[in-house]
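Lab notebook page, bench 4
Experiment: in silico fold of construct C2
Operator: M.H.
Input chain length: 253 residues
Purpose: comparison with the prior construct
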Amino acid sequence: MGGTVPPAVRLDRSGPVWLVRLDNSPLHLMTLGMLADLAETFRRAAESDARVLVLGAAGGRAFCAGSDMREFAALGEQAAERKVLVEDRMLRMLAKLPFPTIAAIDQPALGGGLELALACDLRVVRHGVRLGLPEVKIGALAATGSQRLTKLVGPGRAKQLLLTGETIDAVTALGWGLATEVVDGSAWERAVELADLLVSRSALSLQLAKQLVDEATDLPLNAGLVRASDALEHIFASSELSEGVTRFLGKED
């Protein structure tokens, strides 16, 4: 069933799965309009009964090739700074969604495009696709991307991408932990398959697992273990655990 479609974002829903595609072909550049449309889409998703969100691109030559530099140059210094802040807020909204998010990367993801993928929980990348943060080549900085990238791949590899502005291929990204899966066929189709799998899991378990992993990189070990214990108490107090155990035992009979 189709949803209300913002101008630069295509939204479809398949039950509790939200299928979101950038629709600013051919490069799906991040304009102010697209940033606003993405933020509105994520706001609506957070307030809905969505269980999984898949993020990809509607054709074109890139997943997203980053900011629209012509627009950026025409904005002036103060407006350009505001655009960066708007992008940062949108990425935070995506990262904080209370359910799993999957980036389906069938074409290059560069600059802000890679930062968008980094804000997702899983990244399915098509074989041969290249990823990078080339901002340094024009004297800019992938500020938000530097933080999420470092948490994923470590400081050495993060610096390699950030300082050189060079790209890496999908297989290298998988080895670094930047990609979570590399496929020979359609990354979009594989991401939708993963979404359907996740929908079959306990919504509460997925939400708490995502929270615990996100917090694990920021909290000291003991504090993280306390949070894990609290999460288990929440699980044991829920009906989803008893229902899941009943289903499991029913399969064994």
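Observations: The chain has eleven helices and nine strands. The chain has two domains: 9-199, 203-252.
Next step: discuss at group meeting.
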